[in-house]
Amino acid sequence: MMKKQTCCMLNALLSISLLFALTFVSGCMGSGNRNDGSGETVKGNISISGAFALYPLTVRWAEEFHKKYPDIRIDISAGGAGKGMADALSEMVDLGMFSRGLNQAEIDQGAWWIAVTKDAVLPTVNAKNPFLEQLKKTGVSKTIFQKVFISHSIKTWNQLPGISGQDEVIHVYTRSDACGAAQMWGEFLGKNQESLEGIGVFGDPGMADAVKNDPHGTGYNNMIYVFDISSRKKYNGLEVIPVDINENGKIDPDEDFYDSLDEMMKAIKDGKYPAPPARDLFFVAHGKPTKQAVLLFLRWILTDGQQYVNEAGYVQLSDDKIRGALEKLPIE
Description:
- By secondary structure, the protein is of the alpha/beta class.
- It has two domains: 12-118 and 280-327, 3-Layer(aba) Sandwich (D-Maltodextrin-Binding Protein, domain 2), CATH 3.40.190; 121-269, Periplasmic binding protein-like II (D-Maltodextrin-Binding Protein, domain 2).
- Helix content is 31%, strand content 19%.
- It contains eleven helices and eleven strands.
- The chain has helices spanning 10-21, 55-68, 81-89, 104-108, 132-138, 142-149, 180-188, 203-212, 261-269, 292-302, 319-327, and strands at 5-6, 24-25, 44-50, 72-78, 95-98, 111-126, 171-175, 199-201, 217-222, 238-240, 278-286.
- Strands 1, 2, 3, 4, 5, 6, 7, 8, 9, 10 and 11 form an eleven-stranded mixed β-sheet that branches.
- Strand 7, helix 7 and strand 8 form a beta-alpha-beta unit.
- The longest helix is centred in the N-terminal third of the chain and has 14 residues, at 55-68.
- It starts with a strand and ends in a 5-residue tail after the last helix.
């Protein structure tokens, strides 16, 4: 059984960390609607940290929100769901980006949460994997993924059912940071993040790069780090291992939805892709937020901001969930 370890050289890890710790800052210049509906100008700062999964959409929301409320400054940094929760509970930030369901310990510490969108974690493989074409036909079932990521009883690619060829060791990658992606992948396999075996890498970008650079590598990524939102196709060097959901040893037509981002989004929305690893994404805080700028931002996200969700490569929540989220906010 492989032990968890850091696979990337120190310099590479530092580069990834620095790149995604950079703060997105909305400037204070420009013009727009500064009014919250009461006739008063809304000013203030909002600080946000946390899940890589929600980071790209939050940046997009902040950009669009700033056009309407230019006197509100929003600082955003990515660092994993665990950091988002810790920062929110310690009140180092106004909001934490969070990518898994809350546990009772977090709730007992005063965590407040609100669902804002949905995405999924996908099993990934290098585009030059010599067994790729076979994998696309057979897929891999949950039972077999358990033997790759949990028990590590399957160690080579040709040990996978329906796969033939030379003995090539499977290089399994997992997340070294506390994160929703690993927790959701672990829950899909009947366990949790701590049960996942493999070479530890930091963050979604680190995971994607590790698999892209290793023809025999496999891992898992949040959907937005697998598909390019401009082309709606998978990033060069990265492929998805189809999940054999009904475990019949092949990918049936209704299990085949990995060619484009839009197909994948529809499969999540329609419930064809299992949950977990599909899941809601949240903002969390220490107690119900009271800051006017924060409440205005959250309400805007759940109303006007929903128009940017699909475009940004995420899945909109149902109308019922949106209404439920809005009910958690104070009445205007």
